[in-house]
Write the structure tokens for this entry.
Amino acid sequence: MLTNPKNNDNHSFNIDRFYKKYLKGPKIFKMREALEPSYIPEELPHRDNEIKKIAGITACALEGDVPPSFLCYGMTGTGKTATIRYVSQKIAQHCEKNPPWWIYINCNIVSTPYRILAHIYNTIEGKEKIPPTGLPKDIIFKKLLGLLDIRIKNTVCFLVLDEIDILIKKREGNEILYDLTRLNENLDSCRACIIGISNKLRFMEYLDSRVTSGLSGQEPIVFHPYNANELADILIQRSRIAFNENVLDQGIIKLCAGLAAKEHGDARKALQLLRKAGELAERKQHKMISESDITKAQKDLEKDHIVEYMLSMPLQAQLTLTAIHLLMKYGKGHIITSGDIYETHSELAEKVPGIKRLTQRRISDYINELSLAGIITASTKSMGHYGRTKLVNFDIEKDLVERALSQIEKIRISGILNHKPIVLLTDKVKIKNSVFRKLI
Ligand SMILES: Nc1ncnc2c1ncn2[C@@H]1O[C@H](COP(=O)(O)OP(=O)(O)OP(=O)(O)O)[C@@H](O)[C@H]1O
Ligand SMILES: [Mg+2]
């Protein structure tokens, strides 16, 4: 049996005592899941206009007619996905016979034409009939047409393409969209309606004109960012479900809503903030969420956000960042120039299979991007006869960079965080990509 050693050392942590105290302690949450992104609330305050427009477009599906395809767009966290899911539930509640089908595709996850077709097919079948790779696309397309007519018969099938912009950026993405918007021309009994959702406001510019005509017969539904008062209403409604009574006072909700409103009126951020603050109060075994919990939660979320950003950068940008990190780590006090970063990046590129060395110019572009993202500061300095160089420093805490890079190292590029840049080795010199020992 596992035991917890009981010694008298004041510093040892007694897990049994901790859990007992936790169970007896104050309860902050009544239903924690209500703050999860996947939770669909029964009401969506301040989305009446959008719900009304979508209900108007889709109402004919109640009688088996096919609504026109349409697009929804607006900034992140403005309730686009939640509204579509909400409307889909309502339609199902009002359809006694033959409720429409809803197939939900997140193009960030299911991102290739093959996988989109396979996903639609497998969802209708209820099992994985189409393998993840291997069949020609036109064969799956034909199979899908047959399945839609046989299974869905004369009912409407809504195909929701969430984060559609990710698909549109690729040429093949425009092609699959074109095929999907023309599904009805090839179907006998079933009818499909495409709903595209995006938070990239300019994504229409990337749409192929053939696709635009299939998707934009209907005015797009635009989701405006929430203001602080609207966010407060959303938080009040959700906190009634998620928290026990007297855990939160109005001032805390207002503070939370105000902070999230500053960040483009994002309801997801506001809910995350409240949840994190609740967890902080719970960990401290407090009865109520305090202002300092919100401030601390805000700081923690900002850090998570930066780490997430670094994890999602392209590999070459991550290698450029790694080069800066190594120069900083091993060259205490060493002034980092763009030339050093270029050299170190080239050394790292040789260690990673399939990765090419970059030109000085590309490295300079990545330095600019990292600087724009607020991860580093880069100032240009004239070196007289030798031209200009960039001097680089970190703009965020070093341990955040280390946290992100060690995760990247684990997943993508192992063993590069111990590399010592050659420019820092006082006994070595690099001439035309070869390293020599210095003689003096
Ligand atoms: N009016 C609202 N009332 C209640 N909750 C809302 C409302 N709007 C958004 N939310 C909640 O905020 C979170 C984010 O909403 P949602 O996922 O719909 O945003 P989105 O517009 O799809 O964002 P993204 O573009 O990033 O995908 C969800 O948890 C959702 O339940
Ligand atoms: Mg969404």
Notes: The first helix runs from residue 15 to 24. The mean pLDDT is 87. Strands lie at 70-74, 101-106, 156-162, 191-198, 221-223, 336-337, 376-382, 388-394, 428-431, 434-437. The pocket of adenosine-5'-triphosphate (ligand 1) is lined by residues 37, 41, 44-47, 76-82, 199, 234, 267-268, 271 (CB under 6 Å).
